[in-house]
Each structure stands twice: as C-alpha cells, then as structure tokens.
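Q: Convert this sequence to structure tokens.
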Amino acid sequence: MNVFLLILMKARKVHILLYYKFVNIKNPKKFAEEHLKICKSLGIFGKVLVAKEGINGSISGTKLQAQKYKVILRKIPGFKDIIFKEELGFLHPFEKMLVRVKEQIIRLDENVNMKKIGKYISPKEFLALYKKKEDVIVLDARNDYEYKAGKFKNAVAPKIKTFREFPKVLNLLKGKKDKKIVMYCTGGIRCEKASAYLVKEGFKDVSQLEGGIITFCQEYPNTVWEGKCFVFDKRLISSVDSKNIPLTKCKFCDIPCDLYQNCNNAKCNLLMNLCLSCEKTHRGCCSPSCLSKYKQSLLKKAMINMPKRNEIKAI
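A:
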C-alpha cells in the first residue's frame, strides 16, 4: 500500500455511527429533549429522528465519545439489542447536533405491520446467493440517484426519488409474487418497511440483507458490490469499498466521478456529479442558465452588503 495512503488511513480519527430501532416510544417529544441533552453532554455531532415507532440516527465523535454513546443508548429500556454500523472518517460529516421529532422515522405512507417483515439474510448468506447463482431478484430499496452511484451486481431498482414512492415497485415486480426477493439498502431501515410492504402485498418469499450495504462491504469488500455507497451526510459517499471505480460520471466532461454536489443556483439545487476541474469551470452550476442566475444572486448579495453613502462618509 502507498505510504501516503497508509498515513491517511491511520489519520482517520472520527467514528461515525449509523443505527435505527423500531421500538415503542410513548412520549417522543420528552425522549428527544432528553436525548439531545445526552448528545450535547458528550460533545458529539449528528442527526437523530425520534417517533412513536422508534429511533433513526447517525452521530459522529471520537472513539471514546462513540463508545460512551453506545453504552448510554443500550441502557435505555427497549434499546439493549440496538445494532450500530460504524465507519471511520477524517472529518465530522455533521456540523451540529440535531434531535427531531417526526411522525415516522422512515416515511412510507402505507399501513404496514412491522411485526410481519421479510426474513433477515446475513452478509455471508447473501454472498452465497451469487456463488450458487440462485434464481433470485436482488432488489435495491433506495432512491434512483443512490442506485446510480453504486449497487450490488445484477440488482434492480424502482425509479424513485424518495422512499415514499416505493410502492411503484409493484410495477417492476408485476407477476413475480412467487419469486424469491432479497432486498437491500444502506443500513437496513428502509428494507424493514419495504419488506413489510411487500409481505402485505402478497409476495411469498421476501428477505432483507441484515446490516445493509455498510455491514456487507465491511465484511466482504471487493466482492459483489459495484461503485460507491451514497450516504445522507456531508460525505455523500461512504468509504466502504473505496477502491471501486465510480459508476457515475461528471455531468460535463463524462469522466468517472464520485464527487457529488448540489447546483449552486439555490432554486435549482440539482444533485449532480462534478469533477474538480468542471466544478471550477462552471462554478458549481449545472447549466449556463443556472450559472447566470447564480452570478445574479451573488451580485444582489454584494449590493445588499455594500455600505450606504452616509456610512461611507462616516468612515
């Protein structure tokens, strides 16, 4: 391994935890307030969603802070068996600590029974499906832009922009209710509800990858995962299987690129891939039209912040 790369790997000091738990929380507002106090006392950063159905979060801190957080959370009644996915990073992927109360910890506007979900399949069993070349549908439960960034070999995915649109998968799986379906997502939470939805709709053999992409790639790197793994924090791309060639390409020059950013024109905000060179050339905008509007917004801000005549005289 390159010496410089080795030094960088050792320099990764930030521990990033991803987790969720479907558990009855009687008073989400009170739970959230108390949880925020705990997080702030530890000095960690992150985003945690709390609802009556449970908790869904991701936090970052030092190794000691992450360890303390896991101990505290597991002491809360009902959270003893909560599972954490852990990654290492160079910088905090969060700027502050947020704990918010929501109607659902992962939104799917369908009535599903969370006690009737798909069977769990371990990373080892999942890999064995490929080795045995079993007749199975590998279904990606994530959004289409995540799927484009990286996926498991031969996986299929519904063309959705948000998880709320997941029921569109019925069109993709029409006439296949007797087929074996194995689902996956980043950490597992979307598969919990998605598998419950498929079971409700009458699919006979539904499984979900336990621990999701993160756990699989940590246990079996460089096997059946292709591309990069999209995540919903400042990183946008997870470090799992980081040696993989990007599946995505720069919007302008078409070279392989796993750098994501939103268009600098706030009214557009398109999520896109931009290499460093094109980011500089196009100033982080997705089109000439957006670049023009972005420049206008910068000029407007400059005019607003410009000292008034009487202020200049006073100087």
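The chain has three domains: 11-101, 119-219, 260-303.
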